[in-house]
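In the current project phase, the collection of sequences with tokenised folds has grown. A representative record is quoted in full directly below:
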Amino acid sequence: MNQKRSIWLRPLALGLAVLAVAGTVFGFVRGVQNASDSHRHAAAANLEQALRRGAAACYATEGAYPPSAAYLIQHYGIAVDTERYAVFYEIFAENLMPEITVVER
């Protein structure tokens, strides 16, 4: 009777061990994904902030906000990875801060 129980318990223990390892690997992969998503979101927010600072610098220097995001990028040295990010730049008037939005493609 004892041998029958040990034959049955070994596969069960092995199955539980495999499930534990798979759960640990899944948790690790999920954690890496979350960190990657957080980094991408932070990079887009940093780019948006850099564009806003550049627009404020342009206003302080030239007396008007830049007419376009391209002008801001070209004259104020802001690097934008256009394959990774889309920049939306809406200007209402020379003396009003433009609406700047950065979205990951």
